[in-house]
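Protocol step 4 of 5: obtain the predicted structure for the target chain.
Materials: sequence only (see below). No template structures provided, no constraints applied. The aim of this step is simply to have a reference model before the mutagenesis design in step 5. Sequence pasted as it appears in the construct record:
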Amino acid sequence: MDRPSTDDILYRVDLNLLVILKTLLETRSVTKTAERSQMSQPAVSRALAKLRKVFDDALLVKAGTTMRPTVRGGELLEPIQKALAGVSDVLANRSEFDPTSSERVFRIATTDYGATVILPRLAHLMTSEAPRTSLEITPVDAQTFRSLGEVNIDLALYSDNPLPTSLRTRDLFRERFACLVRAGHPAVRRSKAGRMRLDDYVAFSHILVTVVGGRAGPVDTALATLGHIRHIAVRLPYFATAALVASTSDLILTIPRRAAENFSGDPRLRLIEPPLELPNFDYRMVWHERTHSEPGHAWLRRLVLKAARSTTPLP
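Step 4 output (structure tokens):
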């Protein structure tokens, strides 16, 4: 029996069903899919029933109060995202981007470090140059770099850790580390020329900010080369919360210097130099090849670069 042609397969499938399947696999919820698609829940359920017949698979199954994709369903998400993104490109209006009149929503994934050191100036520039656009910030997570180039994330702000080769990057600045401790911390009194003593650094417990949940960081690697280890008393994914914890304890917080300088305006905190050489790192913006030539996205990248490198004080 002859295998059906590509056209024959496409003629049998309503493209809207694939849009619904993509949303179902992303949200794992009939309710959320109905809300996002502006459909009724029964209509989404009927669409799912049709999709199950098309793929001869359950696609999603109940798991407590949520739904989980089957093996086949999980395999379909990425190719469907890419396929629909390609269709979107074909149908998209490629007119020039006018920031003064655009009402576009730009979505940037970042940690609160990126939000702290770049967002205030970026928001100021956007308000001045594109007053009707909007900016949405989402956290960096395990799905961030898979989502780049799709409708939910335009750009990510991230360190120079390894990334998929399909992504483009642009360095924003070179960053180094500094320490934050509470104003009355014993290590401040014993510091010399604004630098903490190594024996104090090792003796006191530490706070580790880790976005991806690691158990150690570059500080621990640097200490190990000197034959030292530190005790990490608190691990958390938020820089601002870590600074708050440092301000009310004798724990030492070592974080990127730009964030430390921002938080050091709190009278409860003191910025102090670490007692050992720590590696500098590049902070950069990351985007997908798909969006590289799109005029609005190119404008956003230029604005982020301007915000990151500007030295003009904010009003």
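Step 4 remarks: The radius of gyration is 24 Å. The chain has three domains: 6-91, 105-174+282-309, 177-279.
Proceed to step 5.
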